[in-house]
Every structure is written in C-alpha cells, then in structure tokens.
C-alpha cells in the first residue's frame, strides 16, 4: 500500500471563484493537477483535505481514496464513494 506524503495543496484561485466556476466530475485517477471545485472533508478527522481553488495532488487523492476504502466518510463530496471529484472545467 502506498502511503500519502505531502498533503498540502497549492491555492490556485479564490475558493468562491472555484466553487461557482463551470465544473465537471472527473474520475479520481484523472484529477491530479486539476483544480478542486468542491470541499472534501474526510471524517475522521474532520479537517478539510481539499478546498475549492486548490490543485489536487496524487498524494491527496491517494489519501482520500484509501481512507474511504478503510471506512472514512467524506460527507461534503458530490460523489461520496470518491470514485470521481468535482473540478473546475479547463
């Protein structure tokens, strides 16, 4: 199993702008490098892993997917299974 390393994301655009931007659902394995258009707050611990406007990294996506597979829930995700995520349309 791969352990996630750096879980800090770079803020690319203001959260409000990203949340209300034209967006699309993409498979999680195609989301690295894309800008989040939704907040993803895994529970536990209940701390946001991604905010609108931040650029997804492979490490954060692996953390979220492995967490969900282990019983973690992400109640604010549009796709609770996290097989896809909402990103700003390019």
UniProtKB/TrEMBL annotation:
It holds the Pfam family OKR_DC_1_C. One of its GO terms (molecular function) is catalytic activity. Keywords: Pyridoxal phosphate. InterPro entries: Orn_Lys_Arg_decarboxylase-I (IPR052357), Prn/Lys/Arg_de-COase_C (IPR008286), Prn/Lys/Arg_de-COase_C_sf (IPR036633). Residues 12-65 form the Orn/Lys/Arg decarboxylase C-terminal domain. Its cofactor is pyridoxal 5'-phosphate. This is Orn/Lys/Arg decarboxylase C-terminal domain-containing protein. It comes from Acrocarpospora macrocephala.
